[in-house]
Specification:
The chain is an alpha+beta fold. The chain has two domains: about 35 residues; about 120 residues, no CATH class. The chain contains six helices and five strands.
């Protein structure tokens, strides 16, 4: 055989190895590099001043009623949240002339935050029942409140201004 015929199989073997090497490189990159690019669970690094958030909402949202802070005991009574699930909390309630309310919670962990959200939804369901005959004009607020959970933080705001509440909430999440 001449020299050209002998080199052809060697070149073919090299060409066949190239896609295999590329696949191995892609696999190696995927396995080693991409896990470092993964995002953390939602809210893991978030630190929120619960009282400041609630106060800002109270001061910037156009509520129809006067909202007053309530004690931890009262919060536990109306929200039915085990105190062991809560690190910080700030709740403002109306005089009763409206259903307006602000509640901001820091839970001990993400699972407790989910439990707080469930308790808040139950609170709202109870409020709907209470306001159906008393002040039916308040039902739209109660049926469409602003509720958000981010990591271990939960916010509930009953008002006519969900978009404004969302803007305030978003500023605290930055």
């Amino acid at each position: 055989m001449n020299r050209r015929e002998r080199s052809f199989p060697e070149n073919t073997q090299r060409l066949l190895r190239l896609p295999l090497l590329m696949l191995l490189l892609i696999f190696f990159t995927t396995v080693t590099v991409l896990p470092g690019c993964s995002t953390r669970p939602a809210g893991e690094d978030l630190t929120l001043n619960v009282e400041e958030c609630a106060d800002t909402l109270r001061e910037t949202i156009a509520f129809q009623d006067t909202l007053t802070a309530i004690s931890a005991e009262m919060i536990a009574a109306i929200y039915q949240i085990p105190t062991a699930n809560v690190v910080q909390q700030q709740v403002y309630v109306s005089t009763g002339a409206t259903a307006e309310e602000i509640a901001v919670f820091e839970a001990v962990d993400n699972e407790a935050a989910q439990e707080i959200e469930t308790a808040a939804r139950e609170r709202l369901a109870n409020q709907i029942t209470g306001f159906e005959d008393y002040l039916p004009a308040e039902l739209p607020k109660l049926k469409d409140p602003f509720i958000a959970v981010k990591g271990k933080y939960v916010i509930v705001c009953v008002s006519n201004h969900n978009e404004d509440v969302k803007k305030v909430w978003d500023t605290f999440l930055k």
